[in-house]
Structures are given as structure tokens and as C-alpha cells.
Design brief:
By secondary structure, this protein is an alpha+beta fold. The chain has 19 helices and 30 strands. About 30% of the residues lie in helices and about 20% in strands.
Length: about 725
Amino acid sequence: MSRHSRRRFLTYLVAAPTLAVATKLGLDAYAPGSADAAIPTPPAPADLVDLGDLLILAGAPTAHMLVLRVDEEGLVHFRLPREEVGQGLTTAMAMLVAEELDTPLDHVRVRLDDARPELLFNQLTGSSNSVRSLYDPVRHTAAAARARLVRAAARQWGLDAQDLTVRRGVVSAPDGRTASYGSLSAAAASLDLGPLVVRPKKASEHTLVGTPTSRIDARDLVTGRQVYTLDLDVPGAKPCMVRRPPTINGTVKSVNNEAAVRAMPGVLDVVTIDTGVAVVAETFGQALDAKEALDVSWGPGTVDGLSDRDIRARLKAATPSLDLLGPLVKKVEGEFDFAFVGHAPLETNSAVADVRADRAEIWSGLKSPIVARAAIAEAVGLPASKVTVHVVQAGGSFGRRLFHDAALEAAVVSKKSGRPIRLMWSRIDDTRHGRMRPATHHRIRATYAAGQVLSFQHRVAAVETDFRHGLGDALTAAAASLPSGIGNATFAQTLFLTTVKSPYHFGITTQTLTEVPIRMHTGSWRSVYSANTRGAEEIIVDELAARLGKDPVTFRREFLRTARQRAVLDKVAEEGQWGRALPDGWAQGVGFHDEYKSCTACLVEIDATDPKKPRVTRAVIAADVGRVVNPRGLEAQLLGGLTDAISTTLRAGLHIDKGLPLEGSYSQFHYARQKDSPQDVRIHVIEGADEPGGAGELGVPAAVGAVANAYARATGTRPRSFPVTFDVDFTPFPR
């Protein structure tokens, strides 16, 4: 029995002069494959059910609540219950719609849906899950619309629907008669079309899906026409900025010069909120000047006495030694530290809010808008039904926009000030008081004998990650379906166990997480736990290979679990000319990663003739993510993952000094610039299974391992602290 024949479909419509449809489907179980090895590793929890599976399961009850509309001009309008933050999701969904409807891509309009609480857990953007969870529902929705339109034409002409064809949004009869989708939309909305057969296309029938396609918003992005939150024309909305405390989670005790600041040019209001003191003014320049002029007495924050050294010591103390057998076994081991890292999206935190006595309306880039709506309603004292939250396309996220900090602040200021406001965080605000990837400490120990790896242990200690953005609720909803032992775990443990796994047969393998409760502004950062965890493991894999006298690629190939994984590794080794001669101080490095039903390998070449200024000069990436909707979008995701890995492995991080990051701008947070990025990057997409896997998180961990391993080989060192070059080479901004 095929996978699709087990699904149940429900098609309904809304009576209107335009056609509107939605579909419902069930969730099929995932059956893991297996591979033989000398000392096989039992399946990890993430091999049985991964985080994407759980989110699909949590969203299944409302998966049918997608709305697609064909208007009288033949344009197709699709409401996307996810956020577009630059990952190309609107393009991928438009491609699926156009494919199933057999209509031109430029006839499809994708609109980001407002917060819809009836969707429950089906409006969360994250965990490489959007394409995976929407692939079937969107296809069935569009296929249902096509079936109705074709049946409407058949009724008008007195023909059998099976005899009609569709091309570019036009239905044709064998005798030459034609009808556009627009002319059929009203008739297709009729309640009396009889039973319909809804069958999405097979992959072999696709003409658009799987074809490299430029983003549907590309022209707007490069010409400045793309509308972001602060571009919105909301009548009467006044600029607002917030003076923030000198330490994380600091509080306001008093404002000592409020009258003087209120008298400054253009200042309309000064408002104290939980996170600082907000200034509302006629222009952002005036708001900035006024908030800088504020004299505020601050209360303590939650980490005032902590700096990097203190935090590292607490993390190290939470990872006890693995050396239980001492000299009785042959082993390779290492301890690793990864610094805090900011998300640093190009668009800083921003929101527009108009809060009245009886209603509220909010606009912001939000990946979890339902949670944002509930929090805003509580904060402004309104029923949730009186709060409208509009999701606006955002200029980057990398996990940052899972939180709704700006939207909540804007709503509170609007209520207290009694006017609509446009809130903008400065770059310093975003860097110092925004979310950050937690610092981590790792202990890894592998034992070996007779050319085989007997055991692989990895203990991770991380500063506590804040998951109060809806993901925890979704995991709770799906907990009953988790394998034994996971369902009772905390949110962090569940996320760790359903994402982190080893792709190798390394005997008895254990990977554990301990969270250290330090109250900082943490949040999920691209690839969450896997970037550091699997990155560190790939370093140990290289060292294991050296200890056993094996080439790093050959060693990985021998221990990878599946033929699919080996094919990806073989591709980068071949295309990257693994082992080719390079000058002194240059080297190649390789890394591998498997997650979210996808796998990738990365090979880089690095110039580390000056170990303090290493530069990746060339990279080759291969990936198998199952069914690929837009290869060009996938390439962009993998290139972004490579750039994130180069940045955080070599130079980018946040120094914590007495309760606050020192960095406050792009000039100080050393994310890779063009001069730091390889000019030669080649990405190879290997077509895999019929269903898509995840791609957004996939590209970082393998690239972290590849860059670190290349640096180690080029310099003859064993890097253990990342980023490897992490000097305070700037003068910090005042607090």
C-alpha cells in the first residue's frame, strides 16, 4: 500500500464569488533504516522520531486549515501560516501551489497569515520544519482547487473532467474550447460539484518543483521595495526607542531627569516599562538623542557579577570527568568551549503597535505569533480576541524572531502613551540585550581497540536556553508519541534528544545535556544544540582517524551507517579533490552531519599561514535532503550555514563582562565579511526520497567540523575553544 493511499482527505469550500479550499491529512509513521557494521550503534532517539516529526504531529489536528483562493482575475492567493525571514519559504510554497494548479508562478500571491490561535501549534516557524510540515497539506490544498476548477469547466461544457487538460491556468477541452481559472472561480465555489478525486502530482510529473527558481520577492529585495515592519504606514504611529539597563535583566529604580528629557525637541512622551525607559518622539533621531540623555538609576540584573571566566567554570563543573577506566583503555578525548553568539539579523528588533481601550493591533516579524498575541493581550489587559497580530516579513532571524520582545514592548508603550508607536531597537540594543546562543562546554571521550571504536561518550553543559516561545507547548502536546523515556524529559532535554545523534557506528554511544540555570537572554540559534555538539564531535572524529592511522574521509566512510550518507561524503571528496597538495600553512578539512531526515558533508580549504587571521578559501558541500522543492533555495540555505560556521568557528562571538556583552555593533561582533568568505563555493544537491527533509539547520554542524579540522591540520594544533581568534580588539560602547 502506498504512503498516500493511507491518507484521508477532507475538502471543503467557502461559498463566494471566488474559490477557497483547504485540506486535511493524517500523519504517517517514520520507519528508520539500518546498516551493518562491526560494532553497530543502537538507534538514538532522534533516529526514531526527530523534532520535525514531533512538530508535524503537534500540528496535525489543524493541518487542514490552510486557505487558498482563486479570484476572478485568475490570481491565486495563498495564506501562509509561517514567517518568511529570508529562508525563501514564500517562494517554495508558491512553487508547490503553481505546480499543483498548473498555473504560472507569477500568478501566485503568498501572504503571511495573521496570528490565528485556532491553528494551535501549526503556526510556529523553526526547527527546519516548514517545508516538511507544509509539503503535503499545500499540495493537497492546491490539488483540491484544481479539481474543483476542472469539474466546474466540465459541468459547463457537459464533458467528463478526465477529458480536460490544464496549462498555465487555462482549462482546455478536446474540441478546442478554453476557460481561464478566473472565469471558472465563481462556478467552482458552488456547493454542488459532486464527488472529487484529489490526487497531487507524482514527483515524476513535476515541471516546476525541483527546478532552480529565483525568489518571488527577489526584485523587491534588491530594489528596496520590500516592506518590513518599520516601512509600514500606520497612521499616527510615532517613533520610539528604549534606554536599556547596563546589565542583562536590570530594572528601573528611577528616572532622574524626566522633565528635562520631556522638554527636548520633538519628545512626545517618556514611559517606564519592565525592560527600560521608552522615549516617544516625532523622529527616530529625536528619540535616540532623548533616550541617550536620560539619567536613570538602575536596579540589579540577574547576572551582574558574571563574566566569561565565571560562566565557563560553572559549565565545566557541570560536566564531570569521563575518565572512569583511566589507563585501562585506549582513548581519544577532548574538552571544548563555545562562546555565546548573537543572532545579528540585518533588521534589528522592531514593531508597530496601536493599543486602544477596546482593541489592539500589532505588526512585527514573528515566528511564533500565537504566543505573542496571548502575551500582548495579558500585558495590555485585553481579551485575546480583541488583539490582532499581523506577521510581517522580516530581515533575518536565525532563531531570534521566535521571541516577541519588541512586539510586547511596543504594545505596552502604546497603551501607556495613548498613541500608536513605531518601536526600533538600536544595533547596540540588539547585540547586547537581544537573544544569544548559550555558551557550552563539552567533554568527549571515545575508546577504541583493534581498529574499531568501542564507545563514544559526549557530555554537554549549556547555559539554560529559553524556550518560552511556543516550542515547549508543542513538545508537550506531542509527548505521548515520544519513545519511552523522552516524553518525561524537560523541553531542553527533549529538543536535545530529538535533534542530536551520531551518524557513525561507534559502538555504545551516549550524548547527554546538562543545563546550567544562569538567567540570561538566551534563545535558539541556528542548528540549536547540533552546531556545537556535532561540530565538536567531528573534531574528535578526525583525531580518532589519526590515532588509528586512517585518512579522515576513509575513516568516516568506514563508520557511516548508510549508503545514502556515504554517497554524500563521496561526492564532496571527489568534487573537492580531497588530498590534493596545498602550500604550507594551508589544509583541507571535512565534516559530516545527519539531521531532520537529511544529511550533508562539507569540505573546506583554509589559509592559516597567519594562525591569527585564518581564511577559508574554498568549499564544496553536498547534501541529500530528500525531495527538493527549490534547489536554488537549498543552495542558499547551505551557503548560509557555511558562512555561520566560518564566523562562529574562527572569529564571531560575544564576550560577557560583568553581566553584559561587550560587543555592540557589527564592527565588534566579527561575523564573516566578504573578505573572510570563500570565493569558490560549489554545492551539489543529491536527489533523495520522495518526501522533503529539513534544510534550514542542516548546513552549520558539518561546516563547523570542516573549518575546525582544516584549521587544526593547517596549524598543527588541536583547537579546543571557539571562536579560535577571540580577542577584544575594540573599545566597547558605554553601558
